[in-house]
Protein: Helix-turn-helix transcriptional regulator
Amino acid sequence: MSPVRRGDKLPIYNRIGVLRAERKLTRAQLAEMVGVNVQSVGALERGDNYPSLDLAFRICAVFDLPVEAVFSRTEFGAMSAELYRRPDSHDSPTSDLGGAR
Structure:
């Protein structure tokens, strides 16, 4: 047995379903591309199972994204909110104009 104490599993959230839909891939197509069965893809998308590190890397390679863009320990927000978030007040274009508006 490993000397590492095993506690409760921490959740692993993912964007597999969103990314797969974006690329118009079926679960069966993604499963074939990463070498697992279609039920495994469904279980991953639902969060019923967590991928091995190897499988996570294979999935990320299909989407051409880093692991952090596909998997996270915290829930993902809406992609649109991340992509189109408003800049902080100190990042606004008028802040470089010396207070002019």
Notes: The helical segments are 16-22, 27-34, 38-46, 53-63, 67-70, 79-83.
